[in-house]
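job 3f2a | input accepted
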Amino acid sequence: MDESNHWYGHSRIFARYCGISRLQQRQVPRIRGFVQHGWNYLHGFPPNDRWCTSGYPRFVWSDVLARRGWSMGRRGHYVIGSPWAYLLAMEPHMTDAGAAPAREGTIWYPFHGWEKHAVHGDHARLVDEIRDVETGPVTVCLYWLEYRNPEIRKWYEKAGFRVICHGERGSRWDQKGRDFLLRQLAELRSHRRVASNRLTSAILYGASVGCDIAVYGDPMTLAEERPEYGGTARRMRLYPELHGPSVDPVAAREIATYELGFAHLTGPEELRALFGWDPDRHARRHLRPGGRPLVLERERCA
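job 3f2a | predicted structure (302 res):
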């Protein structure tokens, strides 16, 4: 339905979880509704309500996002957990030899822009901050827009950092983003630490797979950043314990588990029905097998 459902291979992860074969995933089914495509500290979607067509479900990662959305007049929330949580359910942390690979160094994610809004900040200063804090080898992962920009990439390459990109975010019809999260998972599992200058999805992903985390450095600014998000001040108020060059790993893991919705993983049968992937979905819409999604009780009465 919406293009963002397919960014970073999310729809293909759900399709694989639901038993749709790799061959069928070349034309992955449309999801009837809007899937939250990244972590944020508002309600899971952009502030502008026109992003989501009225009357269609909003599939969010955690119950707090559904409750924030409700408080802002949004309806139709289903809490199903994040695509990352489903990926981890299918990718246990073991090699063919039966042991986890050794971890080394830090993977660093500078805050990035997108096609319509660029990020403004001092990359040279950020390089200096990374050098001051990190003691092992550093991998810098840039978003594809910044990775293609030699003026940005050169600062990290000149510093001697390994510079990578997980790929473009892709769409339903191309192959660009289909393995984005798989590549990210492999990199996170090979690093001891994950760090960024903003609290983002990558930090939570890393904490969920055993990385130490850090959030420090110039947070940079996004052109025309919406005031509804509350900026750096709100992030600090929300999770002060996740900021700094050294963070309690137990607290980080607990928060990541909650924000990524591991408690809300839904069974394949009901997920197919929720997404409109079953021809008999109308007959099955009231089934509630184990692992059912959370729907706010107040919404049931609305």
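job 3f2a | Strands lie at 34-35, 58-60, 77-79, 106-109, 119-120, 138-141, 162-164, 193-196, 212-215, 221-222.
job 3f2a | closed
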